[in-house]
Write a structure and sequence with these properties.
Layout lengths: L9 E5 L6 H17 L3 E5 L6 H8 L7 E6 H9 L7 H4 E16 L8 H10 L5 E5 L5 H13 L4 E5 L2 H10 L4 E5 H10 L3 E5 L24 E9 L4 H16 L1 H8 L4 E2 L4 H22 L5
Parallel strand pairs: 1-2, 1-3, 5-6, 5-7
Antiparallel strand pairs: 3-9, 4-7, 4-8, 4-9, 4-10
Helix pairs in contact: 1-9, 3-11, 6-11
């Protein structure tokens, strides 16, 4: 049966609005899988509750391989952020394959008077709570929890303004309604390259090859590290042979020169591997961000 799979269209459910990094990753891998299998892999954006609505929908779906989840950092953070979820993410979602791991970028509107991370921190300390930062996808989203980690480690206070996804958040940053944002690099990189947004730093410990002139937050806040990552999961009851087939096809895509170039241009690191490798990443990130959630006292919002 797995050899025949898929025999009809497959849904990839994304927990955030169109235009964000999760959406971009899902559409690139969905297009690849459509070409490889001859069946359409259709992206369905189901935003809300920092990705929990999408995760809940997939957990409840039949384990037949026709409903998949674009898994990301928010799923790991939500495990600690929400006390009463209807599911246990690690127990109820089977990891299939990782796709990409990307930095977030601390970026501001060009009219904002700061040009470096030290200037940003100094301004934030002198104007406590007055910097407005867009936050995409709720309190469990990469933007928000990275902002909270920055507040904690840099000793500053900023106002986080919530949006349903990176697309609408970026619209207001570009329009000057809010001063800045921590945004996963893929959805912001073209705005940075064009000068529409001013980059201050990337959030990974090392600089990004896509923006080699942009420093790391860790250059100024020692030990700071955050990255968004994306992969594919399925309901836990999905048959192993279907998971293995999807894993092989996704890994083939990550090795394909054309798709590899398109993903690499987003500024991230590809994370090919077995389902168990992706499961290990999910478990490690769940533990890491659980500590941040508890230490900072982050609540659902």
């Amino acid at each position: 049966m797995a050899q025949a799979y898929p025999t009809r269209p497959v849904r990839i459910v994304v927990g955030f609005a169109a235009g964000g990094t999760q959406d971009i990753a899902a559409r690139l891998i969905g297009q690849w899988l459509s070409e490889r299998t001859g069946q359409q892999f259709i992206v369905e954006n189901r935003s809300g509750a920092a990705g929990n609505l999408a995760a809940d929908a997939v957990v409840r779906a039949p384990g037949d391989g026709y409903t998949l989840l674009l898994v990301g950092l928010s799923n790991a953070a939500n495990a600690s952020l929400y006390d009463r979820l209807n599911f246990n993410f690690i127990r109820d979602i089977a990891p299939i394959a990782g796709i990409i791991r990307v930095p977030l970028i601390l970026e501001v509107h060009p009219s904002f008077s700061v040009e470096t991370v030290p200037e940003f921190i100094a301004y934030a300390k002198a104007n406590s709570g007055k910097i407005s930062m867009a936050s995409a996808g709720g309190n469990g989203g990469p933007s928000y929890i990275t902002g909270e980690l920055f507040k904690m480690m840099a000793g500053v206070d900023m106002l986080q303004v919530q949006y349903r996804g990176s697309g609408p958040a970026l619209t207001d940053v570009i329009g000057g309604q809010v001063q800045g944002m921590f945004d996963p690099l893929p959805s912001s990189i073209e705005y940075v390259r064009s000068g529409t947004l001013r980059p201050l730093a990337v959030t990974t410990a090392m600089r990004s090859e896509a923006l080699p002139g942009v420093p790391s937050v860790a250059d100024f806040v020692p030990g700071f590290e955050a990255s968004a990552w994306y992969g594919v999961g399925a309901p836990r009851s999905t048959r192993p042979e279907i998971i293995d087939k999807l894993n092989r096809e996704i890994n083939a895509g990550l090795a394909d020169p054309t798709l590899k170039a398109r993903l690499s241009d987003l500024g991230g690191m590809l994370i090919a591997g077995l389902p168990a490798d992706f499961g290990k990443l999910i478990a490690e990130e769940t533990e890491k961000w659980g500590k941040v959630v508890r230490f900072a006292g982050i609540k659902p919002g």
